[in-house]
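Need tokens for this chain, all 134 residues.
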Amino acid sequence: MLEFEKKSPKTRWLELAPMIDVVFLLLIFFMLTSIYAKPMLPVNLPEAETATVQDEPDITIGITRSGGLSLNTRNITLDQLPEELAELLSVRRDKSIRLIADKAVNFGLVITVMDIAKKSGADNIAVVTEKVQE
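Here are the structure tokens for all 134 residues:
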């Protein structure tokens, strides 16, 4: 019978350099994509031919199709809006806000929210629309 020499098992080490490269690439990818990712409300914006691009203020009020409200992507009720908006505006020099409303929202609700914003201290209310594609 043939007997082969038993080889001692060599200790295999996991190659770390390729794994570290992949981890760093994933880290860079997620860092870059998260800079540009902004949570948006699921709204269908109305269109306007005279729409212009403006700098974004920090305070955003959103109204969804179902009539739900959000203040800076945090869900709130219509009763909570005056107090929380006044608190946000009281510590800011720029008292402008953005209003994002679905085009199917009742116009009365939009006017009510705009009125609450003015009473809370907002100087400028920018209504967000989409520019008509020509």
